[in-house]
Amino acid sequence: MGLKLRVNPGIAALLTAVLLASTVARAEDVLPSWREGPARDAIIAFVGAVTKEGADSYVPPVERVATFDNDGTLWSEQPVYFQLLFALDRIRALAPQHPEWKDTEPFKSAISGDMEGLKAGGMDGLMKIVAASHTGVTADEFAAAARTWLGASRHPQTGKPYTEMVYQPMLELLDYLRANEFSVFIVSGGGIDFLRVFAEEVYGVAPEQVVGSTLEAHFELRDGIPVIVRDAKVSLIDDKAGKPVGIYRHIGRRPIFAAGNSDGDLQMLQYTTIPRSSADTRPRFGLIVRHTDAEREYAYDRQSAIGKLDQALDEAPRRGWLVVDMKKDWRTVYPGA
Amino acid sequence: MGLKLRVNPGIAALLTAVLLASTVARAEDVLPSWREGPARDAIIAFVGAVTKEGADSYVPPVERVATFDNDGTLWSEQPVYFQLLFALDRIRALAPQHPEWKDTEPFKSAISGDMEGLKAGGMDGLMKIVAASHTGVTADEFAAAARTWLGASRHPQTGKPYTEMVYQPMLELLDYLRANEFSVFIVSGGGIDFLRVFAEEVYGVAPEQVVGSTLEAHFELRDGIPVIVRDAKVSLIDDKAGKPVGIYRHIGRRPIFAAGNSDGDLQMLQYTTIPRSSADTRPRFGLIVRHTDAEREYAYDRQSAIGKLDQALDEAPRRGWLVVDMKKDWRTVYPGA
């Protein structure tokens, strides 16, 4: 700029103090919904290590990539994934235009809400539900339908809007990482476009920082208007071994922090935390949210059909992943509780 | 924070002046490698309109998405795409491990540098070159090979490193947009992982802001080390109608600014600039770099095999896209020239 300034040393010191005061929060202000104890301490110690300039453990801000699973990690996933409930409601809404559905599986079970009938249809049936409820429309039409559903629907057990069934301690963790110059991404088995409808408002995660299962799509000028049309073909199942692929495809950097809650997150945790060589001594953090709180949320792990946590739980001690015990480690679960 | 400060009003005024001086550059400091005239004026007027708080034309920062093609828009693309030169050099480097290549097309032509022979093989031959040169290795191995090549190779005509054949006026445009709180993305027909090797250093564009043609990949633990392996299957050709799909997939927001130079960018320009309805009055900007400078760079458009600009040039006046005349509108082409 060529701009010269003479600043009184006293003022310079004052300015420095103000800047420090506004960026360095006191330890007790951090993660207030986490109970004091080893889980909270481990997170704070890791963030302290990677942000400490001059230390061997320091990681430059551009490389502070953190990835979070969504279902069961940022919001609840019981009795079934919320996006499946959206799909079923959408099948019901579209049923009048498809009279043949009332005699055809899996639509017949979807319309009547027969979960056992749906399960009997297996993955094949599920893909038909996804195709019928999620494709053949434009991107804007799909986003509008998801937005309307999220605004109007309530959870069958809690009666809450789904977007209020997010975990307050995890919202604080997202904020804490961002305050320490992490880039925070969602990496979910759920649909990327469903997530993008609420991720920015609810989690502060911008659309371009959402990675999820992805359908093929195509572009066209429809009556002269540019539209993206969603096709009934899968581009990426962003689950299990698909998660590191989604990270590679969308982020192009290996995270230094990953959080999940099920075996669907196992490979993301491995990809994030296992050193690439003996020279790779960069600090890395793996976190597993364990659902241990039948009273405030749900309790499930090794035997659950949704969010099964088994192999990742076995690997956690060996890999040094932090297993968060929801009941013990979290002061509150949902916001405003 | 509960922190109270008493600041001398004179100091407050000084601080305000310093802050303003460092963020609001004077008009003549902006885009210095662009000659004064209608092209530069149009860009500055657009940025002024979308950043003017309170105006109807105002666009909030999170929605200020700008997308740039790479080949022919940010760096040169003649005599052929630089990534193709990388692919051919890599075929030559790998040839000793594949003695059968010396008698098999398209490898025979690739090894001898016979461009006519390569052309005769068409798209089929090209895909074999891509598969042999770009797949079957891990993501890290591929990035290392591309990095080494970019560091060691020189352009056959200018003798410059490829990363110095970027357009200084466009680098200034990227910076100018970022200074005005735009998010700048590359959306290229070139390979996403090739681009990511140099985009951050050369363009200031982070890996997660690069969209490009994408191969399938898979994750594995190889001898206990997590790796991404590049597969010989295309996930996305990020060119022509694929560009809006790449934008939808990676960014999840419609840009308000797009820049390209060829018919490969036509659909991205349409997607960015055509209003979705009569109520959609948001300002939008389409920019085409026209290669008119045989002396300082290259001159080509409607008849060129590489970077053909024909249909998009015909549409430009009707759509209101700015056609930048490289020879007339740019004071310099390459940095340091």
TrEMBL record, chains A, B:
Pfam families: HAD. The keyword Transmembrane helix does not apply. CDD domains: HAD_like. The keyword Kinase does not apply. It comes from the Bacteria. Coiled coil: none annotated. Gene3D superfamilies: HAD superfamily/HAD-like (3.40.50.1000). Residues 1-27 form the signal peptide. This is Haloacid dehalogenase-like hydrolase. Keywords: Hydrolase, Signal. One of its GO terms (molecular function) is hydrolase activity.
